[in-house]
């Protein structure tokens, strides 16, 4: 199979690629990410619910948490995300800031009490919808590396052709959209009042698109300027599934221990369309013009828009979570989750991806995530806070590439109805190399800051 490459997404790692694109190994990492968001209560406590349960979003961490509920209920959430990205490229800083809204979560739990003398005292069924990852983002990077890559005008008939080797500027604009949606179906039961056990089936719908534009300006020694523009786009859809199981054990009246395992996610059908195919020597839609000339080179003249399609399969990492929580009666609680994600076993289908699969095994690491949360109750009012730390899967990542964040929020009970609000802040740094085939050009440095506000309505059924 001829290797087809895809352009860089700024939340993926900076890895070797072709032209302004990157290989399938980068998309595999992108589609493996989980933004770990849910209800306002879940978000305010930074998702530390593996040993707690009792929240619709907690079930996706540990399905045993479904039977912690005392009664049936329904919840739904809205998110507002503000993302600020600062790009530093050869001493020039560019900042983009965008606001995004989505319907991030909805779910219901149905609790059934056992009225026999069985050791199983309660059962619960649950269904939830959640946005596992939202890809809506954009950033701009501009500056001058001093190195030109578009050095000739394709329609130049002179011999030799004029060379435009003096770099004036480079500008790169990247826009992404789409989401990875998870549907969780869980069943849980309570054994002898102390042990909660649960299993779940998770299905996924993937939609992703990316549009990137590279503009480069160079000049010759006689004051003539060459302006070049390369446009690339990709559209990807896919479906998949995973399985999960877990347990929550009440060791004492106050101490709870949790353990859960989520299998790899098997994206069994990923289909893409892109314009990153060889079109007159350029991998993308290309326009080049010379100052003072009315002639423009355009490789899409005559509706020549080459679109290529490809299908593949992807196995993303399994996750294992150990959890502990301490309950201070009716006053409050503190909880912590520690999760290991097996990135080294990420795998793309078929022998054609032997290079990419070798990369996963040798260049990635099995990363860990730590979530800590607390909640304190004052009659109908609850105050919450949390901390989140996620290690980058890149074995060579620097400390600032790891994602760090904090959260806080509040909830108020009106009886059968509850309202919750949460604020999260997550930040990390990354490198983004939009000239990966040229060692003469440094990657741009990205500083990414996400601020998320969540509102949740919960209704007892």
What does this protein look like?
By secondary structure, this protein is mostly beta strands. It has one domain (6-270, 311-460): Beta Barrel (Porin). The chain contains three helices and 24 strands. The chain has helices spanning 24-30, 40-44, 354-363, and strands at residues 6-7, 21-22, 73-89, 92-113, 120-134, 137-143, 166-191, 195-219, 225-250, 255-262, 266-274, 278-279, 282-283, 285-290, 296-298, 308-315, 319-328, 332-341, 347-348, 367-378, 381-390, 403-413, 417-432, 444-460. The strands form three sheets. It has a 14-stranded antiparallel β-barrel with strand order 3-4-5-7-8-9-10-17-18-20-21-22-23-24. Strand 14 (285-290) and strand 15 form a beta hairpin. The longest helix is centred in the last third of the chain and has 10 residues, at 354-363. The radius of gyration is 25 Å and the shape is elongated. Mean pLDDT is 91; it is low at 1-21.
